[in-house]
Specification:
mainly beta, Jelly Rolls, Immunoglobulin-like, about 700 residues
Amino acid sequence: MVFQNPGNNGLSGTIRIEVDNGYIVGSTVVTDNQWHHVCVVLPNGQTNIDQALLYVDGQLESNSAQKSQTINTASFNDFKIGNDNNNRYFEGLIDDLRFYSRALTIDEINALPGLPQSASFSPTSNTDVIVIGTDTYGCQNSDTISINVNPLPNVDGGADQTVCTSDSVTLSGSGASTYDWDLVGKSSLQFDGVNDNVNLGNSTSLDLRNDFTVEANIKLDGTNSNNIIFAKSDETYNSSTPKGYMFRATLTTLQFGYRFPNGSSFNQISKNYTFNTNQWYHVAVKRTGTTVELFVDGVSLGTGTFSGNVNFPSTVNTYIGRWWNGSGSNSDGYYFAGKMDRLSVWSVALSSTDINAYASCPPVGNENGLVGYWNFNEGTGNSTADLSSNGHTGSIVGATWSTDVKNTTCTITNNSPFLPFNGTNNYVVSGTDANGCINTDTVSVTVNTLPVLSLQNDTSICAGDAITLTVSGASTYLWNTGATTTSITVSPSTTTTYSVTGTDANGCIKTDSVVITVNSLPVISINGGVDPEICLGQSTNLTAAGGSTYVWSTSATSTSISVSPTDTTNYSVIGTDANGCIGYDTISVIVNPLPVVFAGNDTAYCAGDSVTLSGSGASTYTWNNGVANGVPFVPTIPDVSTTIINHDFETSSNGWSNTNTYSSCIWERTSSLGQFETGNSGYAFLLRPHNNYGLL
């Protein structure tokens, strides 16, 4: 029961709420003859009258008196307006009385009609509203307002669309005069700073090597002193060679730190910047050559130096929001505390202009050099997709979804093409008609990623060789040769580029190509290509040229070999050049037989006679002692007049011994005739008959 308090409990003239013997009394005195809005709310789960909330003219009252009493609806009698069971009656005007089966909120109470001076309601058809005004003297007057309710425009955003990465989309609203488009369902990830992270796996394509860029939207909650944005490290407890890198923010700095795997100390590029808690910022780090530059909201904070690359074992993972600190525990300061709206990793150093642009409007997912991109717009689930089409799906560990996202300046214009994000995107269009009435419609745009074609790397072959090219990753294929198979075998004569276009089940198309470099065969030659001739018994050297390594038909592997064939023989060599290409050459070693030389018959001449010696059986002849073939000459006989050596064969003292038998007599020299040894000249040896035997 609600009535004006007579003053016996609480202030006189205030509003009193009474149930059985319990009651509450407000503190605002209600002036007679003025309209007031009175509302009583029993919060959910409450059962006592003194727990009820009293609102007068939209303001919560403080009780001037109260008495507890459990509300028992089973004991209630008939419902009455303006009277109670004690025959107490209402005197005045009552308008617009409502009952609700739930507890209204303060915003709902203030939106109810009948509050002083203004009222808010939503008519569904044309309505006349009468307002009665009462002044301080109690004098009243009224006015009537006619409210014309215009129908909402029938806004249509068009049919849902499905496209492929890099395809533009045009959204066209109809049914209104003007249109505003926006992406709905945007979300971020909330990290607790204790152990929340996103595991991106161990792909080396996410490694920060050579030129790179990392950019993200972050909001720090201030609970961590070090907030890891992006990191990779294989540091372990007691590790002698820890290594890794991290991109992190404190409340007063933005940093990029690294450690090489040689036990060196941790190095970092740190630039001062004051981050307000619970405020969105765009942060970025890039390396160009050896120069590292840090950015906040597209503005450079300064540079530092980072030379070389950090190499990891193949099992090490990359993380968003986590760095392994190497101390054997996951302590505070090595995780991210706050929200991240998105993060992207690039294999190129973005220009300052690009970084500034991405601070306002995020990438799409098909940009050159983009190797990983997560916008965290899934809003549900335990994984987040890589919008770069490189397949680096992130596994969410502990982090929770949030609808708190960074505002962007990206705009979608009606009937103007734009590039949507990869994945499923819901766009809402707000259409406004000529009357200013607004209605909305939602369109779903699904962007399917392009197939990832797997084709071998550029390679080289030798002239005349064939190679088989094989592709995978799509459903159908078309080669620039016209073939539609997964594999083709080619044998180009010159360096040639082969391209293949793959189409997947969604109709998305991707083209890849491979360059086949054709290396010419080495020109191998032996002895310059001239067949050598030798005489029987002679040898000759064979030398190969034009290759890097050789194998001869003799099994030798040297550049040169020496051969001495007895008959004319072919020798071949296989030469391999630096490209692995092979050439060969063959040479014949011609073996000429020795001539049958005849010097003529032995002939006796008298001293002083002219002698002509003529050889035959050959082409040219060379005689000793300076004799010319076919040219007469007078031989010189030895000079024996100087010394005559006379030895008596019968005298053993002269060095001879005799073997005398019936049939023969043999004399042997048992010691050297020194004068006739090699090198001595001017001696002649004369044999004459013995005096006793007359025989020689």
